[in-house]
């Protein structure tokens, strides 16, 4: 067998502790230059033995040793898929098979003991953003039984499932019905019935409209998740840009919090700095900045490269 390059072996060993308890089988194995200069521009995620390579440089391909590694074996992938990312490419393409067996059907991964459905054919995103793993766990641990969580821009409802596992009631809002159906499936995978009673609600529609509607009804939440895309256009053609509109979003959400509630604000807009992000939100929130406690939410340890995700808890001081 072709020997594995040392930086790759080191990258795998560095992550051993993240799966040591047997509760997590989806994580980032290579995070660009964070795992060695030879990996600059290259990202490798393990979804329970199906590996996904993303390359970001023109002409860049997955490293050949991955092909040789694919097959049976404890550290070996059964499949390797490849998604070249090109900032100029407006078409959101799913990854293509590059080595090993085809992945034709959706499959299940586990994260801290919770199950999530992944689909390599599902479009540009595969169903779970691995860089939010620690935030999902933090959310789950914060929950008191019966607490209420509002998950805005819910996508496949991964945050909602984590909150439900902590005993919370959840409301998930997303423009995409298809994503919410995927979310319902994620609930079922974990033994929660998404259609029973009103413990878990799924609202298909615009987050800005939903926040105003929920506020008019007097609904209150212990935690609100705000993790929007960097740029989006809704069905009415309205444009959302994190850099311009996150403050408005936070200001709309804040009145829906309980007296000691918290917002989890998160963005992967690379133009943002941590102080700029924090300031943008604090200046938009009702009440003075000193009335909010801000706790940064760092990225998971397997994300060794750029710290591109800005995330923080904004808790009301009661
Ligand atoms: C980057 S994903 C969010 C990821 C999600 N927070 C998670 O942790 O899995 C963006 C999602 O926002 C949704 N979306 C975009 N604009 C929206 C809007 N104005 N209202 C509701 N959902 C929106 C998209 O349909 C998509 O599912």
Please, could you describe this protein's structure?
- This protein is α/β, with parallel strands linked by helices and 318 residues long.
- The chain has 2 domains: 6-117, 2-Layer Sandwich (Transcription Regulator spoIIAA); 130-316, Rossmann fold (3-Layer(aba) Sandwich), CATH 3.40.50.
- It contains 9 helices and 16 strands.
- The protein has helices spanning 6-14, 16-19, 64-69, 133-142, 158-165, 177-189, 207-216, 242-253, 274-284, and strands spanning 26-31, 42-47, 50-55, 79-84, 96-100, 107-111, 114-118, 148-152, 169-174, 200-204, 221-226, 231-233, 239-241, 257-267, 292-296, 310-316.
- It has a 7-stranded mixed sheet with strand order 10-9-8-11-14-16-15, with helices on both faces. Strands 1-2-3-4-5 form a 5-stranded mixed sheet, covered by helices on one side. Strands 6-7 form a two-stranded antiparallel ribbon.
- Helix 3 links the parallel strand 3 and strand 4 (79-84).
- The model has no long low-confidence stretch (mean pLDDT 93).
